[in-house]
Amino acid sequence: MAGNLMHILPPCPIMGRKRLLIKRIDNPCSRQIAYSKRGKGILKKATELSTLCGADVGLLMFEDIFLRYMDRHDDFSSDPNWLLVVVTVLVRKPETFEALERKLCELNRKIYEAQEKMRSYSPDVSNIYSIAEAQHHQQFVAKAIQRIEKLKKTKLLEKETSPSL
Amino acid sequence: MAGNLMHILPPCPIMGRKRLLIKRIDNPCSRQIAYSKRGKGILKKATELSTLCGADVGLLMFEDIFLRYMDRHDDFSSDPNWLLVVVTVLVRKPETFEALERKLCELNRKIYEAQEKMRSYSPDVSNIYSIAEAQHHQQFVAKAIQRIEKLKKTKLLEKETSPSL
DNA sequence: CCCACTATTTATAAAGG
DNA sequence: TCCTTTATAAATAGTGG
Fold first, then answer.
1. Which of A34, A56, A84 shows the shortest C-beta gap to B62?
2. Where are the beta strands (DSSP E) in B101-146?
């Protein structure tokens, strides 16, 4: 273990942990270690988010495990046929991402049906046909809710202050 | 606001930062705050992983923003038509997840072609037809590489030790 | 790849604006 | 919702087995 050496070596000046700049790690070994550690970290975080907030979280991590292997064993690096992409997936409720796309379409239909009722709270939610578009709508809807809440607060304040004066 | 009450209430014993148990957060406000903060945190981590390790990372976070809204404003909670799922997506190289599925199939073809060459290193990589299956293969391939590396180490050790004896 | 250790950095819960 | 601050908890880089 590390501890066995630690107490017989002179204390290092620093030689230890350091701040990491967010740029591609050049050293293949360090890069792989970082991928392994951080990959697990994100998986943990995603699971926590799912549990804490009841959100469905999907996580895809693509890595080229053989490319990585070749980095360390250059006897294969000349052969471009050596290629394997490995995918790590976490979905709280196990569904494929195609299924998630379908789910979004289905929900879009419900949104369309409910659109008339929702008009006053969310001016435009009928054009979500892809995951990418939904991203923009999240901001939009959040802003709309924000406006409503601000309005409610203002009106509540008016009610509270006017009787006391 | 909370602050308006805070200074007229007696100072709480600790009421400060505390360790969080990983279970669903009951209070809707706290849950939403946690979702917002942790969501951003994971997005940051995913981006960092992508930059640091050159990995393609896809992240899906589904939340029901209107369900969330209804949690706090129960005047809508009786109407099941109020439903909007919001999706947050990050992909380093912007691709839909259907495109990612196609990519996986294409790579599978390459894997199939290279299978004969790979046989000694990875006993079976021809049956990856979905993201879910790939997950199992990651562990499998990782173990295979582990075995090879262990073997190499052992042989290297034999070479190093036998001349000295 | 796994594990352990630990100094350091990063994330974040709680509070207030 | 956004922001800031701060104390605390968690993640992790570097090292070694």
1. A56
2. none
Asked if pLDDT for residue B102 goes beyond 70, the answer is: no
User: Do the Cβ atoms of A52 and B135 come within 8 Å?
Assistant: no
* Nearest nucleotide, CA A17 to C1': D13
Q: Is the pLDDT of residue B130 over 60?
A: no
* Residue closest to sugar C1' of C1 by CA: B146
Residues B32-72: tens digit of each pLDDT: 889 889 888 988 898 888 888 877 777 777 655 544 444 44
Q: Where are the beta strands (DSSP E) in chain B?
A: 56-64, 85-91
pTM of the model: 0.57
A5 touches strand C (CB under 7 A): no
Distance from residue A66's CA to nucleotide D8's C1', rounded to whole Å:
41
Cα angle: B71, vertex B74, B80; to 5 degrees: 85
Query: What letter does residue A11 receive in the DSSP assignment?
Result: P
Quick one: A1 exposed, middle or buried, by C-beta within 10 A (0-12, 13-18, 19+)?
A: exposed
